[in-house]
Amino acid sequence: MAILHIQHRTTYLYKKAVEFGEHRLMSRPRDSHDLRLIDTALAIDPPASALRWIHDVFGNSIAIASFDQAGERLTFDSGVWVEHYPVGHRKIVVEPYASRFPFSYSAEDAMDLGRTKERHYQDPHHRVDEWAKDILERTPEARTLDVLTQMASTIRKDFKYTAREEVGVQTPLQTLELCSGSCRDFALFMMEAARCLGFAARFVSGYLYDESQVDPTNPLVGGGATHAWVQIYLPGAGWTEFDPTNALAGGRNLVRVAVARDPTQAVPLSGSYIGAPADFLEMRIEVTVTAQ
Fold first, then answer.
1. DSSP string of the chain, one letter each residue
2. Residues 6+ positions from 117 with CB-CB distance below 8 Å
3. Closest C-alpha among 291, 230, 223 to residue 260
């Protein structure tokens, strides 16, 4: 168990004062048996004229801020304190009937998993399919956990991590062709590759615990900003975390904030302003995760 403090500040800068539209913020972690929320704080400058909280279709906690004051700068500063109880890779228990590939979800699970089992991106020449099947063929005995772990490890080994500042994600085919991408690109690629094999998968947005605080010789990549990874539904284990950016399995070093069927549904902060496109200067993001 670790007690973590997460500070996440996002600042928008403009050439001149602009009016702000509604903004939606995802920064409150999902309280569960593996992640207990101790306290939260949220400061917005200029202050929001109204702030309301909702749960989206996936049960994520969303803050919606409205403004009646213009400004040259808009800052969202979120602080959370959590107790983290990650599940180790060796403690992931899969039902015997699903311990080797292939397997089928029960009728009840399959109905509720719905579109998380479906491919979402075009692959006309089946290149992502071929990549996933190659992983399967190279995994001895086709053990379910080994297949998924090998998938994450191969992405970590063969693909180059790049901290892209562009909005959105690459398509899985782009990531495969470039053999590079950001954490969100790798998460989407692994989601689609897992779906090729019939797994239910969903996108996760959250934070990465700074491993260098524990072991400076083995730092993880993807820190200093929000992080993204994937969950695979495994009978007996439930939704299980896999981070292809760092080849992690089981939630170690991962603080979950939001889950979604597609990355476009888990944007940490989105909003609008009234003004010319040239009025926008830059967006600055500062994230720190420290052990208390």
1. -EEEEEEEEEEEEEEEEEEE--EEE--S---BTTEEEEEEEEEEESPPSEEEEEE-TT--EEEEEE----EEEEEEEEEEEEEE-PPPGGG----GGGSBSS----HHHHHHHGGGGS--S--TT-HHHHHHHHHHHTSGGGBHHHHHHHHHHHHHHHSEE----SSS---HHHHHHHTEE-HHHHHHHHHHHHHHTT--EEEEEEEE--GGGT-TTS--SS-SS-EEEEEEEETTTEEEEEETTTTEESSTTEEEEEEESSGGG--SEE--EES-GGGEEEEEEEEEEEE-
2. 105, 110, 195, 198, 199, 200, 201
3. 230
Sheet with 23-25: list strands edge to edge. 50-55, 61-66, 23-25, 269-270
Inter-CA distances, 284 with 73, 76, 127, 199, Å: 11, 11, 36, 36
pLDDT range class, residue 218, cuts 50, 70, 90: low
The model carries a pTM of 0.91
Q: What is the pLDDT of residues 2-38, one digit of tens each?
A: 889 999 999 999 999 999 999 999 999 988 999 999 9
Return the percentage of the chain with pLDDT > 90, whole number: 81
Reported as a single tens digit per residue, the pLDDT across 229-286 is 999 999 999 999 999 999 999 887 899 999 999 999 999 999 999 999 999 999 999 9
Q: Do 226 and 205 form a contact (C-beta atoms < 8 A)?
A: yes
